[in-house]
Amino acid sequence: MVQKLYVTYNDVHNLCREVAPKILETFNPQLMIAIGGGGYVPARILRSFLKRPGSANIPIQAIGLSLYESLGDNVVEEPGTKVTRTQWLDLTALGSMKNLIGKRILIVDEVDDTRTTLEYAVKELQKDVEAARQALGEGEETQFAIFVLHNKDKPKKGTLPEDITSQGRYFAAVTVGDEWICYPWEAGDIEEHDRNAAEAKAKKAAAAQN
């Protein structure tokens, strides 16, 4: 039976709050790119904790990538094998890709599962920015970092650039086992979702005392 981890909005809020100081201290992003749909809510909450007094809010761009495949009613979805691009950067707000040159960009998603989606996002964004830099003929290197709420402790199919992993630009709020994570924005009945989360936490606390 698949083990489920129920995550509440309060959990998401607290995870973002806990990691934000480290992100500010070591990376200090100038732009956030949320991977839809799971990265939207964490990015918005995280932005509040990344805002420095007297400074403007960090802009948030969104990209849409799909990897999971629906297997029907009441069946847990399984990771697919191909990433589908459903939405990309909004150049009407961004201006052009050249405005990303030399920036510190934080990519946000809810979970690092097989790492396939994150690998695709980083590679495609790096490729687009490098093409713009080459066309301009100059410009500093753009730095990318990653933030996820949950990193699953499992073998990964995708890989991330060494500069992200070796230079401390990969931020995971918490590492969990290979369980199915139920996020609140996916719930049909949020009250039931929160009850399930509370029951699971109570059982875990009781087990820890025995």
What does this structure look like?
With 210 residues, the chain is an alpha/beta fold. The protein has helices at residues 9-26, 40-50, 91-94, 116-136, 162-166, 190-209; strands at 4-6, 31-36, 60-69, 78-87, 104-112, 143-152, 170-176, 180-182. The strands form two sheets. A six-stranded mixed β-sheet has the order 4-3-2-5-6-7, with helices on both faces. A two-stranded parallel sheet has the order 1-8. A hairpin with an 8-residue loop joins strand 3 and strand 4. The two termini are 24 Å apart.
**Spatial strand sequence of the major β-sheet:** 4-3-2-5-6-7
Low-confidence segments: none
- In what range is the share of β-strand residues? 25-35%
The main sheet comes to: 6 strands, mixed
List keywords for this structure.
210 residues, alpha/beta, 6-stranded mixed sheet, 6 helices, 38% helix, two-stranded parallel ribbon, globular
Short précis:
The protein has helices spanning 9-26, 40-50, 91-94, 116-136, 162-166, 190-209; strands at residues 4-6, 31-36, 60-69, 78-87, 104-112, 143-152, 170-176, 180-182. It is α/β, with parallel strands linked by helices. The model has no long low-confidence stretch (mean pLDDT 90).
Topology:
Elements: E1 4-6, H1 9-26, E2 31-36, H2 40-50, E3 60-69, E4 78-87, H3 91-94, E5 104-112, H4 116-136, E6 143-152, H5 162-166, E7 170-176, E8 180-182, H6 190-209
Parallel strand pairs: 1-8, 2-3, 2-5, 5-6, 6-7
Antiparallel strand pairs: 3-4
Helix pairs in contact: 1-2
